[in-house]
Amino acid sequence: MNEFPKTFQDWVTRHISDFNGCNRYLSRWKPSVKNVCPSCGLANEDTKHITRCKDTSRTTLFMEGIEELRSWLVTNHTPPHLASLIHTYLSHRGESSMESLTPPHSPYLTLAQAQDLIGFDNLLVGRLPKVLINIMSPILTLRNQRKVTIDRWAKDLSRHLLLFTHRQWTYRNSTVHYKLSEGKTVAEHTMVDEQVRSLLQLSPILLPPQHRYLLTTENRTTLLQGTTSAKQFWIAEIQSALAEGALARRMKRIKCRRGTIRVRRNGRTINVATLLSSLNPPAVEKEKGLKWKKRRRK
After folding, report:
1. Looking at the whole model, is its pTM more than 0.70?
2. What pLDDT is stored for residue 257 in this prediction?
3. d(CA 244, CA 238)
């Protein structure tokens, strides 16, 4: 761990203690944060989900990482069958035990049982079973051409596993924080696009006639090919038009007659002020002049 920068050591501590910056924990003290994965949308994004996310791009990154790890194992004198077993186990992403992936009479059956006791997540933070060290120690002793000791081999493997997990975490954060264009992140661009697609399903009847051009086919094509800022302006116009249309339909239902309408309540018919009359200030009698007050006193 001393080989890593201080910031990386801090991340390892938070990740192992299950208190990193996932949305499961951020949503507890930030109401604006939703407890979902920013990549695949799955609810309850915790530490384990970092290496289990089924998003297409993150899955591709995961598979590329375990291929690099397999190449490193073979290059550093790991038996091909053992490297393939570790690769297969990692490719199942914690959904299968290593023992179930190991043939019954395999010499690595004991290793598989020991690894299942440690678990998938512990392996990805560099925790290796002691059985693996015992298997590799005599192999490295026989092939000690590069002066590679078992301690150096185990430290390098743990380092590769930690960097592999950190790469998944970094890619996840690029979706949340990295601003591609127009000062917005990928998640913000996606949210605006989803809102636009939802509003495009509206019926033009809900809008006043002068605003129905917003839902025409020509305007829709231009909008979908436009910038995110233009889409946000369009969303604001649609929301304003919807509010205007709702007010117009409400006013049409109200029959205005001298500022009041007759309503039956509790068995009695009473006059109630309409919306138009309630919007106008009441007529207040003006104060009389001083001469009128003097005459009034007489």
Report:
1. no
2. 46
3. 10
